[in-house]
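Exercise: predict the fold of this chain.
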Amino acid sequence: MALKSKLLLIILDGVPYRNWRRLMGNLEGWALSGEAQVWRMRSVLPSTSACCYASIHTGVTPQVHGILSNENRFRVEQPDIFSEVSKAGGKTGAVTHSYWSEFFRSHPFDLVEDMEFDEPGGPITHGRFHTMTGYNLKNQMTPSDADLFATLTMLTRRHGIDYGHDCHEMDHACYAMDGMLAGFLPGWREAGYEVIVTADHGQTNRGHHGGHDDEMQDFALYYFGPAKGPEPDALLDQLQLAPTVLSRLGVEIPATMKAKPFLV
């Protein structure tokens, strides 16, 4: 079944609003040229990765879906972007942390069986995951940004996915991220995809997040596509992401997603 449009959602981990607008020269250049629209968005609480990841895709708060920390993981019960797109006959793809497999497909994550899969009709049609097992400041065993963006691009070309999600955890130097993203974004647009680039949460100068503070919760959201959004000074709610994505794809928004889409 052909959906109304195709969309890629790119999420960077822990990039505060101030870093987006100061350091992301490519994204800011596209915004200044009119090719992208940009807003400030505020995360749910707790403003930690797993909590935000689950809320981004279900459109409900952590207090509703139950993912309340990075260590608290299970298959969520609420409808999510992947399940609704698949139900509507679309194809989905995820190139990201294993949390997504656990939240939206099955828990627990099996390092051998779940690392890579193709499941026609599954909530995540094509999954390519990593775990960051053993990660620390001296042992940064995490995929390159370019590897993740290239893998997502492969799924768009090889499988023609309608909705694709890519997430890079543990933010690197922003200028490097911005440069790697710039190498892929024009190709995604030429292939007919609308693109959203954003974060899961912000963080303080000391690297802390999770709490109720603008630095920890606020980040930027850039949108590339034909839809129109609110005024540039609007503050978006992270719970608006899921219904917005579904509305852009032409997929019915489930009753559990009560926030209003911000793109029309």
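Check your answer against the key: The chain has one domain: 6-249.
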